[in-house]
Structures are given as structure tokens and as C-alpha cells.
Amino acid sequence: MSTFLWVLYLGVTLWSLISIILHGSRPTKSLSWLLAILLLPFAGPLLYYLFGVNRRKFKFFRLRQTEKRKLYDETYKELQSQKTKVEFESMKERKLAELIRNNTLLAPYDGNRATVLNGGKETFESIFEALEKVEKFIHLQYYIFSEGELTARFREIFKRKLAEGVEVRLIYDSFGSFSFRGKTIKRFKDIGVKAFPMMPIRFGNLLFTLNYRNHRKILIIDGKVGFTGGVNVSDKYIKPISDLGVWEDLHVKLEGPVVNSLHRIFIKDYHFASKEELLLTEKYIPQINPAGNHKVQIVAAGPDSKQPAIMQQYISMIGLAEKRICIANPYFIPGTAVLQAIKIAALSGTEVRLIIPEKSDSRMAKFSMFSRLEPLLEVGVKIYLRPDFSHSKMILIDGEIASIGSGNFDYRSFEHNFETNALLYDIGLTKQIQEEFDKVRETCKCLDYESFKNRSVGQKLMEGLAKFFSPLL
């Protein structure tokens, strides 16, 4: 029996090594998988088989998943219905908007009202207030929709509104919302909620969905009000249920024409999750009158995208900045391209400030983050450690353009996850976000290059090991 297992192990290991050599997309990621396979007998090849194989290269996955979604985008282009042209005041705004328009087919819109929501309490107060005013339908999708006080509140509102004739549709990620199953989801379906998992984790499709997650957080009310950002439906955003305390985060409420863009993302995901009819009718995509004077553009990307739009958005913003770049992110694990962009900006005289949490929900992610800090400190990037845990994903440049959304600065958000960001082209909004950023920064510990460089050998060793595995996170 032992001989058989060793022959099986050697065969699987050899297959893994050949697969990496033939299909590896990046040398750094390939080397990480090679290291994992060689250092983790049995577990390494298994992990590679589940998470490392680039299944989009295989015909049956391409036909069943990626190509169908791409065909959807080509058939139902939002730009076909774009009738208004947004006038931008600066070249950097025009260049960024054109980049996003070309690689996501989502246009910028004027005439919106964007409200920045700081923290779970403020976010859910705004969401529940908006839900009470619903007339026709509620559409929502979340990476984490977990059982607790918040989901109980959602269910109570859904039950009342469904009795009034309101339609409720919910899609959730099977992995992130793992606790949302069994009796919990049945309680929602029993009252009339149409609930479907995105890329369900089942035996028949496990190998083709486990590594591709829907990380979006979207809520649409009557096609006229939308919410997106980093806040999941989890009680950890409203009360301390772990050693990390209450999670901090940013979200944004949108009113005006740009809600159509956000809603189209939901409709596409719902169509593929439910296999039901398309909701691209006037009932669900109504003509929306201007609600304010904010220019907003939605950025959406995923494994089905032709371009890595989230990564390109961040690199473009870093490159366009002339005076200041402010970044807040809980999983700052960028690859070489983004790191070089930040270093070039700092060396060119642009002030770069980065806030990351001192505590993390993942030790591997924390060590991997810290492995990237020394070369940034060396070129003058100001790095601040936030004492509480913040889940915010924000980048702001020159006090003119800000991005709030679900996209992290890591390989997973750039390549494997379905993500959504909101780009805010407005000096007033960015000033508000800048003030909050500076307020938080005053409570943080600023890292000193010389002191950080002299951290313990043990710390550097852990960071070095984590760095090898960072492309896999």
C-alpha cells in the first residue's frame, strides 16, 4: 500500500511540476507553487490542483464560464445606451475614465449624489433606512452574508416588504457565506426571497469554482439607489466578536444615473447564478433623473475580464498622481508592477502615504504585507500602522479622485475575485475622505525605516517565507 501511495504521489507531483512549467502565467507565482509542491508532500500537489491550475486555459471551462460571461458583455453593452458625455476638468480624470470605459465597458456619469459611509454602524443605518422606502424590488449580493443580528434584521424587513408585493433577490458567495446554508437560507426562501449562491461549492464543479470567488458587495433598491464598498453583512462590523474588535470599513451610497452601472453588474451575476431570465427591462433599469452633481464611475472586474481592471485602475491612479497618494488597505500584498509604480511615484517627488492595520485576521497575510514594506520605506513612502482592524479598500490622489470598493491590493483581487469599486471624481468628496484619512493617521504609529530595517531575524524569516506564498493568497 505504501509503495502504491508513493508512486501515486510521485506521479501527481510530476504532473504538477509539468503543468506549472507549461501553463505558469508568472515566474514569481510559478516559483511559489513549485516551492509549495516540493516542501509540502501530498498537501502541496493537492493545493495546487484546487487553487493553482489555470482552468481558464482549458476549453470546457472557457466555454462554460468565461466565454459566456464575455458574450454577455458584448451583447448587452452599457455603452450602447450611453447618451450623455461627462465633462472632466483635468486630464488625469479624462485619462482614468477612458481607461475604465475601455476595459470594463462602464461609463462615467454626472448628476449623481454619493454619500461616503464610515463604519458598519453608519453603513447599515443608511441601508435599513433606504430599505424602508422600497417600492418595487431589492437586489443584493455579498461575499459574506452570515447569520446574526444583521441578517435577522434583513429578514424582518424582507418579510414585511414581500408581503407588500416587493421583489427580493439575493446572491451570495458560497465560500465567503459558508454559514449561510441549511435552515438559515431556508428561512429566507420560505418568505419568498429568491436566493442563489455564486459558483456553488459542489462536488461536480468544485475544481472549477473554488479558486474564483465573488467578492462584491452590492445593494440596489428600485434601480435608483445603490450601495457598494467593503462592508459585508456580518456582525463583526457592529460589535466585537473576535480579538480584532469591531471591524472598520468604508462604503458608499449612490443615487443617480450611475446606479444603472452598478445594477447591471448585479443583473449579470444574478443571471449566471440563477439561470433565470435577464432583468434588463425598464422596470429594473429605469431612466434615472439627476440626483446631485457628483461624477462617479463603477469599476468591475473578475476572472472573465479581458483586462485586470482593478490592478490597472490602481496603477493608473498612482501614475497620474502629481502631489499626493493616500492608500488604506487591509491586505496590501501587491505584485512587482504595483510596487514599482509606487516606488516610481515616491522617487518622482509624489508624497505617498499608506495605512495598514497593525493587527490582521490572517497571520500569513500580515507577514506577507510586512515583507513589502522595507523597500517602500527606503524610497520615502510614509507607512502607518493602524491600531484597530480596518477592512477599508481606498485610494485617493491629489485630493481630486477617490476609489472606494471591494478590491484589495493583492493577487486575489487582481486575478481571481469578482470585484467592484466606485470611482469618485469630486473634490468635495475626496476632501471629506482625505480628512478622515488624516484623522485616522494621527492615531497610527509611523514606521521608521532604520528601526524597521533592524527588526528581528525571526520576523524577517517569517516575512520571507510568507512572501514566497503571497501569490497564492
Could you explain how this protein is built, in words?
This protein is an alpha+beta fold and 473 residues long. The protein folds into 3 domains: 52 residues, no CATH class; 206 residues, 2-Layer Sandwich (Endonuclease, Chain A), CATH 3.30.870.10; 164 residues, Endonuclease, Chain A. The protein is built from 18 helices and 15 strands. A 15-stranded mixed β-sheet has the order 4-3-2-5-6-7-1-8-14-13-12-9-10-11-15, with helices on both faces. Helix 8 links the parallel strand 3 and strand 4. Helix 1 runs antiparallel to helix 2, helix 5 packs antiparallel against helix 11 and helix 13 crosses helix 18. The longest helix is centred in the first third of the chain and has 22 residues. The radius of gyration is 22 Å and the shape is globular.
Short recap of the structure:
With 473 residues, this protein is α+β, with helices and mostly antiparallel strands. 44% of the residues lie in helices and 19% in strands.
Question: Helix coverage percent of residues?
Answer: 40-55%
Q: Could you describe the largest sheet, including whether it forms a barrel?
A: 15 strands, mixed
Give me the CATH fold name of the largest domain.
Endonuclease, Chain A
Spatial arrangement of strands, main beta sheet: 4-3-2-5-6-7-1-8-14-13-12-9-10-11-15
Q: What's the level 1 CATH class of the largest domain? A: Alpha Beta
Coarse structural class: alpha+beta
Number of strands: 15
Q: What would you say the CATH architecture of the largest domain is?
A: 2-Layer Sandwich
Number of domains: 3
Low confidence ranges: 55-63
What is the overall number of helices?
A: 18
